[in-house]
Design brief:
Largest sheet: 9 strands, mixed
Helix content: 25-40%
Strand content: 15-25%
Shape: globular
Number of helices: 8
Radius of gyration: 19 Å
Structural class: alpha/beta
Order of helices and strands: EHEHEHEEHEEEEEEHHHH
CATH architecture: Alpha-Beta Complex
Number of domains: 1
Length: 289
Amino acid sequence: MEAPTRDIPVSVIIMTKNEEANMQACLSRLTRFEQVFVVDSDSTDRTCEISKAHGAEIVNFSWNGQYPKKKQWCLENLPFRHDWVLYVDADEHLYPELADEIAALLAAGEPEHAGYFVRFDGFFMGKILRHGHFNLKLVLMRRDKARFIDVEDLDVASMWEVEGHYQPVIEGTVGQLRGRMLHRDFKTLYHFNERLNRYSDWEAKLRLRDALSQPDEAQLPGRRTLKYIFDRLPAKPLSLLVFNFFIRGGFLDGLAGWNYAISRSVYYWQIDMKIAELRNMKTMGNTND
């Protein structure tokens, strides 16, 4: 078989721990990128073996429980060959159109912006969600212009070594690429629900501290206002269910769209319950927060 042409001068970073189920699908869509790092945290499955077979550079990361966490550590320590980096989770897949767009962007000279957001399609219960799912992440960035914030979450026991759901600080302007990525986890619904439970612990703690929205994190025009409105939305679980399924058009995704809308609603119900629990614990003197 002819070796793929690695013609995109970008260093890809994939952060892993026991991601054997996802590595083949993830790496097979990154064959055009000149450098691919798999930053692994002592996996005990075939994550590293599969990654080596795809030509990735394996770097071990053992977290010391302090800052920097994994994304920022990568920016500070990896032996990069390129100025531009692309963060890809093991359960994320690039569509070919996005690879073409990134290649054209860098071939045209220095890009206009220092970082770029990408929209994600979701995959849930056997179906790609093209309507009721909406997620934007800043994943392509010039590494010397990017920094991930310390958000005072080291005491959230359910979280771990990777930064939570917030964007990096970018020195310069940011834009959005037209191409998309697909979030598709080949693990079971048990792992999906476990992740929601873990992240709702983290989000509840930060919302109680009013620390979830960082003023310096990168945002597209208008997104900060939308986040402000969303944070103050009453009856958030019910409002989000109505918004995702009816207003955004999740009903067009069929039963999978309904189940996904329910899962997002339950996620924010969990957050509300956990915030109430933390407040009760604080009142009773059982927490220092």
